[in-house]
Specification:
alpha+beta; single chain; Rossmann fold; six-stranded antiparallel β-barrel; Thrombin, subunit H; 373 residues
Length: 373
C-alpha cells in the first residue's frame, strides 16, 4: 500500500513540473497577435482591424493608426521595425490626408463618416417622352417601351427613375418641348429637382417581318432608335448613339404584336446597357431645400444610398463642366466654392434627410450638396 502511495505522489509531482515548465520554463511563449507597422514619410502607422467594417457598408477591413496614438488590446503586441509594408494604396491614402490637412478640409476633424469611394449612389434619371419618326408607335406602344426601359434601369440598383409627377411638373413649368430640346430649360429642371440626367429616345425604324416556311407562319421584328443623354445640371447633350436590334436577336413569335413587344424589350435592355457607363461619369448631387436653425433639410435619403452619419460637402453652386478638348467627351465637373460640411442625422418623408452642420454656418436653400469622399 505504501508503494502505491509513493507511485501516486511521484506521478502528481511530475504533472506539476510539466505544467510549470509549460507555463514558465519553456522558451516558446503563448502566441500573441502581432500588429504590422507601416512606415511612410518617416512616420510609423499600425495596421489594425476597422471597427466600422461590419457596421457601415463600403468601409475598409483595415485602417492605419499613427503608432503614437495606438494602444494595444489584450493579447496584441506591435511587431518590431523590421516589418515594413509599402503599398500604392497607403501612399495615396497618406498623400490625400496630408493634402486635406493642409487645405483645412480634413474630414476626420469634423466628426462623422466620409462616404467611401466605392459607395454606389443611385442617379436620378428622367425618361423624356418617346419620339417616333415612323408614325407607327401609338401611345400604348410608347408607354410599353418606356416602362420596359424604366424597369431595366431600375433593376440595376444604380438608377432612380423619376415618375409621372415630375414629368407633369416639367410640362407645367414648360421646361422641355416635344419638338425640340432646350438645354437651358433642362438645366433649370435638373438643378431645381436634383436630376443627374435626362434620357431621350427617338424611334427611327420599326418593322414587322412576316415569315412563311414549310407551312409554318411566324413573325419577327427589327427596330432602330437614337439614344441621347443630357447632363442634368447643364442640359447639354453628353452622349448620343444609334442602337439597332436585328431580327436575329429575337425569337420567332406567333403574332405581329408579340414580335413587336419582344423587339422593344430587347431595345430597352440595350439602351440600359449603353446608358449605365455614361451615368457613372456623372457625380451624385442634391441640394438644400430648407434651413431651420441648426437643422438642414436636403432632398435625398435611403433610396439614394445615404446612411445616418454620412458627411456631405456644401457648395454655393455646381462647378464648371470639363470636356476633352480633342474628342469633346464629357469628363466631369470641377468643384464649386466650398461652404461647409453637413452630417446626416435622420431621414424623413419619401426620400429626404435632415442634416446638422459640422463645418460652416452660412447655408441656404438651393445650395449644392455633394458626397464627402
Amino acid at each position: 500500500m505504501s508503494n502505491y502511495k509513493r507511485l501516486m505522489t511521484i506521478l502528481f509531482l511530475c504533472g506539476v513540473m510539466t505544467l510549470t515548465l509549460a507555463c514558465f520554463g519553456s522558451k516558446k511563449k503563448t502566441t500573441q497577435k502581432e500588429q504590422e507597422i507601416v512606415t511612410e514619410n518617416g512616420k510609423d502607422y499600425v495596421k489594425v482591424p476597422n471597427p466600422l467594417y461590419t457596421i457601415w457598408q463600403g468601409q475598409p477591413e483595415y485602417v492605419y493608426v499613427p503608432k503614437s496614438q495606438y494602444r494595444p488590446l489584450l493579447g496584441e503586441r506591435v511587431v518590431g521595425e523590421d516589418v515594413r509594408i509599402k503599398t500604392k494604396f497607403l501612399e495615396r491614402k497618406i498623400a490625400r490626408l496630408e493634402s486635406e490637412l493642409k487645405s483645412g478640409n480634413y474630414l476626420g476633424g469634423a466628426g462623422g463618416i466620409a462616404i467611401p469611394a466605392n459607395r454606389i449612389m443611385k442617379k436620378r434619371v428622367v425618361l423624356l417622352p418617346v419620339g417616333d419618326h415612323t408614325d407607327s408607335m401609338n401611345i400604348e406602344k410608347k408607354d410599353f417601351f418606356r416602362n420596359s426601359l424604366s424597369n431595366s434601369l431600375s433593376q440595376t440598383k444604380r438608377v432612380m427613375i423619376e415618375g409621372s409627377t415630375v414629368l407633369k411638373t416639367y410640362e407645367n413649368q414648360k421646361w422641355w418641348s416635344k419638338t425640340a430640346i432646350n438645354e437651358d430649360l433642362l438645366a433649370q429642371a435638373g438643378a431645381a429637382l436634383g436630376v443627374q440626367a435626362f434620357v431621350k429616345i427617338k424611334i427611327t425604324r420599326l418593322e414587322i417581318i412576316h415569315q412563311l416556311d414549310a407551312n409554318k407562319e411566324d413573325y419577327k421584328a427589327t427596330v432602330s432608335l437614337l439614344l441621347t443623354l443630357y447632363d442634368g445640371l447643364s442640359g447639354r447633350n453628353i452622349y448620343a448613339v444609334t442602337i439597332n436590334v436585328s431580327p436575329s436577336e429575337i425569337k420567332s413569335c406567333q403574332t405581329p404584336a408579340e414580335a413587336e413587344e419582344n423587339v422593344l424589350k430587347t431595345a430597352a435592355m440595350e439602351v440600359s446597357q449603353a446608358v449605365l457607363p455614361q451615368l457613372s461619369k456623372l457625380e451624385w448631387f442634391t441640394h438644400i431645400v430648407r434651413v431651420d436653425k441648426k437643422m438642414v433639410f436636403i432632398q435625398g435619403g435611403r433610396d439614394d444610398g445615404l446612411y445616418v452619419g454620412d458627411l456631405l460637402n456644401v457648395y454655393d453652386k455646381p462647378g464648371k463642366e470639363i470636356f476633352n478638348q480633342l474628342t469633346g467627351e464629357f469628363l466631369g465637373r470641377e468643384p464649386g466654392k466650398f461652404k461647409g460640411r453637413l452630417q446626416v442625422v435622420e431621414f424623413f418623408g419619401v426620400n429626404a434627410a435632415i442634416a446638422k452642420p459640422v463645418l460652416g454656418e452660412t447655408f441656404k436653400a438651393g445650395d449644392f450638396v455633394k458626397l464627402a469622399r
